[in-house]
Queue: 3 jobs
Job 1
Amino acid sequence: MKKIFLISGLSVLFFINCSTPRTASNNSVSRGWINQNLAEAASQYKLLKANLPAGQLPRSTFENGTLRTCTSENWVSGFYPGTLVYLYETIKDTSLWNEAVRSANLLSKEQYNTGTHDLGFMMYCSYGNLYRLTNNEQYKQVLINSAKSLITRFNPAVGCIRSWGKSDDTKEFRVIIDNMMNLELLFRATELSGDSSFYKIAVTHANTTIRNHFRPDYSSYHVVNYNPLNGSVIYKKTAQGAADESAWARGQSWGLYGFTVMYRFTHDKKYLDQAQHIAQFLINHPNLPADKIPYWDYNAPGIPNAIRDASSGAILASALIELAGYSDKQQASNYRDIANTILKSLSAEPYKAAQGTNAGFILKHSVGSLPGKADVDVALNYADYYYVEALNRLKNLK
Ligand code: GLY
């Protein structure tokens, strides 16, 4: 402590802020409570399955509460099979497993899709989870092929995987913070194939992202556009946030989750520091409400009447549970405390849907893209995915 007090007044404030739990740690949840919520989630997903037209995957709800579906090329296609695997893992109901396998099969052709950066979401959340429980060689090959497709979008001059646009576009090269979530697939592909090029690309992408996506307060921009020929930054903007300089809520959660995964695979303290700084920015943010479910943007106009984004809360909870495992006792207790508050909030009104409603989705009140007027204040399959993942992570700690 003494050494830290010598540094500067600002550092002292920062240190105190980082290390002091802001809420009481008597906020635990019981195994029975977790099991009850997972059982209710499984029963909702059986309803979702019953509602699905052939060949379709669930995406979200329309504003009137009916099911909105998508097909395999949509970036959210992998979350439904992935959620089913998580639910099967804890509930052990084979109908959940069979539906996970059936629905993942609908995505099989996407392993060769080089037109998207979202292959981590699509193929890792689905096939990655199937492989985790089976070690099935066929799933392993799908993961390796998906990683090969993803790295076709890597540009060494930029040091990033291209998010949006065509691979041969020489005018612009847009990278979104969400892309940090696709790196887990690359690390696993190196482990599964022995080819270190996937790992190296993941590390290069993360390092470029630290350099260019983050502001001094550890909030992040949504979109950075690079010159594809020399890697210089053309602009930093938002597409789904409230303003170019705002902190779009889901983007902040993606960054936190992504850098926590970076530390899991590399054990490089630089990534742990990055994740912890992002966590501090988020959990100490004056606009994070008492129930810890973020507004759709931390700088949304109209706060406290702005709408919330349950998906960013679910991702934040899941990331904090993992990050707690890499952090000192006091930080870990703070992270778990916030994660528990989020999960308790999501497991009650107004976020959790009554059984038999919400077209079969578990959660309500997420925001896809408010500026794009798409999926605003509705159920989203990725809110459910990270909510169930977080509950499983909590259960595994017990
Ligand atoms: N990756 C797109 C989103 O988070 O909305």
Job 2
Amino acid sequence: MAEFDYDLFVIGAGSGGVRASRVAASYGARVAVAEEHRIGGTCVIRGCVPKKMLVYGSHFAEELQDASHYGWTVEGMKFDWAVLRDTVQRDVDRLESAYTATLDNNKVDHFHERAVVAGPHSVKLASGREVTAKYILIAVGAWPVMPDFPGNEHCITSNEVFHLAELPKRVVIQGAGYIAMEFAGIFNALGCHVTVVNRSETLLRGYDDAVRDRLLQITLARGIDYKFNSPIRKVEKQADGSLMVFAGDHDPLPADIVLVATGRTPKTAGLGLENAGIELGKKGEIPVDAFSKTSCDSIYAVGDVTNRVQLTPIAIREGQAFADTVFGGNPRSIDHDLVPSAVFSQPPIAAVGLNEGQARNRYGTIKVFTSDFRPMKNVFASRPERGLYKLVVDAGTDRVLGIHMIGPDAPEILQAAAIAVQAKLTKADFDATVALHPSMAEELVLMR
Ligand code: NDP
């Protein structure tokens, strides 16, 4: 008789949990995973993937608008939200099945119910059943924060936004981070009137100043309104079912939906961590060491619940490294530096490495190279919007410390360029690379 029911019990079947389960099982571990919502987690079910499909769907507006400049006549153009929404949800269903098949193919047992920690080696399922395991991995992710103001029950978060019955005419979005700027772009492109209200005057905190300012200018010109330094005070429901938003000192803003996107907090409430002696960090996160181990030797945590870097590829890497370390005899930790990231705003932003301020603080003297250009496709389409690329370089070693971009396809281009930053290449290496002409990406090797 085995000492425990399983070698590994994973709580949460999202990006980190599924990767860890599959890899641990491939090393011969007996693995089970519990998921209270849908298999796939935030990224697949209500995050990155369906969001990106909405970005694609909404981007046709720009392409169709520009098409006439290239000789196309597009007659009878109209948009049907229900078609896009349902297509996205069908693909989410397909992906959920694919993730479930991955678990089945690797002989990972799955429980479709909530599980909480009952002790260092045991979890309790919602059905009341207690299951024991040599190791427990917590990969429950994060959940949208809803600030406390009267009427917040009338607001939605990114959890609900994918399921709207109809396309709203007026959208108020609170927050000016990733989710706010991505959905501002989607709704604006689909023809909704969008107002972004934020508590500070900063959008996309942490990204390069000039890049953020370019996004602000372009989106203002596209018709998005901004109310900075204006947190929502209250939201009132009107007799006709619409909403009235009171933000800062502004006149009330009428809205059909209010999307709140004010960060995501680790989903640790009620998880029973105290039963294993684990204390939470200041933001509700589970503190872990470099190998994702908590203060309890048999319990590990990966992904958003640890609040290190809230990005899917990081959760996947942490899940993989956990399985390699604990079950593969290959102890590995993850480097959280130099993580490429993108905001799928319209136009999108992408960045890797240090911004100017961070580079100056860390390296002293730096050089900054900038290309401010009008993409060829915008010139043809009489679209005045310009792209902006920046390289931040250490003046002492010539090493490229950071790349910051806004412009069409910036995330696609940045992913390849991030290899050069990861490989510690120099500005001279960029200069020695022959331009691929005509492209937007060639700007990266033509900055002098
Ligand atoms: P972000 O942290 O990106 O932005 C939060 C925004 O809400 C900021 O503008 C912030 O203002 C504001 N804010 C924070 N707390 C409050 C509060 N209590 N009251 C009012 N305003 C507040 O969070 P998101 O929700 O947009 O996204 C969560 C995370 O999900 C991101 O950090 C990212 O890691 C991940 N994500 C990644 C995506 C990608 O990779 N493309 C896409 C979507 C999400 P201020 O800055 O002024 O303080």
Job 3
Amino acid sequence: MSNKMWGGRFGAGPNEIMEEINASIEFDKQLYAQDIAGSKAHCRMLAKCDIISDEDAEQILQGLDTITSEIEAGEFTFSRALEDIHMNIEARLTELIGPAAGRLHTARSRNDQVAVDFRLYVRDTADDLMAQIAALQLVLADKALAHADTIMPGFTHLQSAQPVTFGHHCLAYVEMLERDRNRFKDARARMNQCPLGTAALAGTSFPIDREMTARELGFDGPSRNSLDAVADRDFVLECLSAAAISAVHLSRLAEELVIWASAQFRFAKLSDGFSTGSSIMPQKRNPDAAELVRGKVGRIIGALNSLLVVMKGLPLTYSKDMQEDKELTFDAFSTLSLSLAAMTGMIEDLEPNKERLREAAAEGFSTATDLADWLVRELGLPFRDAHHATGALVALAEKTGIMLDELKLAQMQAVEPRITNDIFSVLSVENSVASRTSIGGTAPDNVRAEAKRWQEALADVANRREQS
Ligand code: ARG
């Protein structure tokens, strides 16, 4: 039997393999709510423009509501022979209300239908992801305030560099996540044009009102070129790119958690709720959630790559290749959402080990820069000479196995005779972090002020979302 929806010119039905490769219902059924919202907007517009009668429109709208309830109650039978969500819903509508159902597809094609459905889905999901990112930022800002003066080693090359505070480290991720959120926001603003009414590719001869459907579906306006509207998926690519970058940020934080939780570092403890044991080694406490956040980024980057490759050689306008956009997008977004939830939980429970962090911060001659700065400030040495003298002092301390502040004044004066006892005041890690008061520096007062600023800004984001 040929296809009910488009089989007019076909004598026979599709080969079984054709049906298998062609069908998308297994995954695009996730778009049912967006598909029905788009259809309802289209139907109301057709009636208002006198393209279909009010009676038919009323039946269509009621039928679509029935279908929503059936799907949500798990009573809807999805059929692979009907290919995709659009035709599954239309076929059921025909069963429910008869011939009036056939009028819904006037001035519309599956090409603009899928374009509008997918835009609505990506837009809604971007909104959810932005809220989740903000929630993680808030948890990090809270941690930052609680640990504004918890001193830890700051690294470059994973070598002790200069002491910083744990709060400052948390706020670094708040900044990254803010840019992630803004990337979604920018992409959202660009994608918010409604493709509905573009029809197959050329527009339609029916006197439709595209402003009306655009408004009803929450778009800023109708798309301006029919070919572009059905042919591009750059709105998905932009959001996948934002998702991939954000996932990379989460992965870096996850990597730090893995390092910090190791017995060798002991910088912080992950809660039982986000650790697992080993089936053979009773002493183990593995940071599996952090490892998985680090690992799952591969799928998200993979999704971005896959869709770029799918799109790269397609002539205008729609090609069936584009059906490949959905599974990977669903997977990438749900993976990012889960990773954000796991990271938020881990950070909320995270307990930095203050004593160990303080001890580690003092290792590796981490206040050598403070010593060099003292030579510049107090003795007027050019920084390069101060750097050289400090290097000699570090070598001396290293050779005798002591810290910089354990050197005797006489040993220091052997390197630079004008050094006085005052130099010892800058060699403590506390003094070092407290002195970093430049904008964006790690001084505890800075960190406290920044953490509070973020708490307020993020509470605003949450309030605005509640109101909308
Ligand atoms: N399932 C299709 C997709 O996801 C819907 C659009 C089909 N359009 C068509 N002309 N065959 O892309």
